[in-house]
Give the backbone structure.
Amino acid sequence: MVALQDLRNLNKAEIAAVCAELGWPRFRGKQVFSWVHEKGASSIDEMTNLSKEQRQILAAHYEIAPLVLLDTWCGDAGDTIKFLWQLPDGNTVEQVLMFYKDRVSTCVSTQTGCAMGCKFCATALCGKGRNLTAGEIVGQILLANGWCQKQGKPIITNVVYMGMGEPLANWPHVKKSLQILNDEEGLNIGWRRMTISTCGLADKIKQLAEEDFQLELSVSLHSADDKIRSALMPINERYPLSDLMAACDIFTEKTGRRITYEYAMFHEVNDSKKAAEDLARLLKGRLAFVNLIPANPVAEAGFFPAKSERIKEFVEILEGHHIAVAVRKSRGQDIEAACGQLKRRNHKKTQNQEINQTGKKES
Ligand code: SAH
């Protein structure tokens, strides 16, 4: 049997080429693209403006690979929803949806685990994982939109690549997914409504600067001191702060865009006055915005959130140095929205079920 190709993984030109190959007129390509990437069809059978025979011809070589919604968690305030998706090969990934007054933002996964090994991150505990395809990335957004429509909620306006995985370590698929999401005959999500977040792959940041994308870039900094940062994020050994900031400077020079620096505040790790002074010194004169995040506790990793007085003090020091800063309201802590936490919880749940079943069998 021939392996079927996932239509979600194809961009407009590729879908047009598939239809041209079949000898179909050009408008068919547009129709198929719209079914897949605008309407979010989950099967070729839904493409009702194609004849039954045409659908059969297409289905001989193509499919729309299923993402199965295994679980959802809703935050207490009802404005944050977390999804756990199962991919066709059985792997699982998380996605978060956040409803604001003026926008609906989603945090999507790009890998099924992460090789970067950040010490405070639950995804790192899931292991290396594999890259998602562009179709699996785009699929999260299309299917979440379908869920929103069914619930009578507004659909996604903003996409942040801040779920499980390191987007710049999966750049070819991430890039393709961005282009598909941006396509005006698809979901037409503007570049400025899409954000890539990276742990600091300096070479890839330089590469990104060469692309003609008006994307938002977030850099997970978490410390302005090489020693502390290396202890938190092993990637800092490969790309220390001097390399990282040089790459960030190239990015701002080329794009004229301000970079957001994510700074999760961990109790007694990176929340001191000195840490704030170091950060102010590092960012002085740079086009920068600091997002302070009260850390999500990941008990297994031994990291705890900074106290609110420390966060206040930190903000005051940064503002004293005229560094733009905001404290991100941490959403979804009650549903363990930190990356990888839901997947781990589900994994544990499944393990416990297995243990219970074995227990029953034995008794
Ligand atoms: N690999 C990318 C994107 C995924 S992580 C990156 O590193 O940016 C998304 C964000 O969540 C990153 O800023 C990451 O550092 C942060 N994060 C991970 N675990 C966290 C935790 N326990 N508390 C607060 N932020 C966390």
Summary: The chain is about 40% helix and 15% strand. The pocket of S-adenosyl-L-homocysteine is lined by residues 118, 120-121, 162, 166, 197-199, 220, 262, 264, 293, 295-296, 298, 338-339 (CB under 6 Å). The mean pLDDT is 91. Residues 341-362 form the longest helix (22 residues).
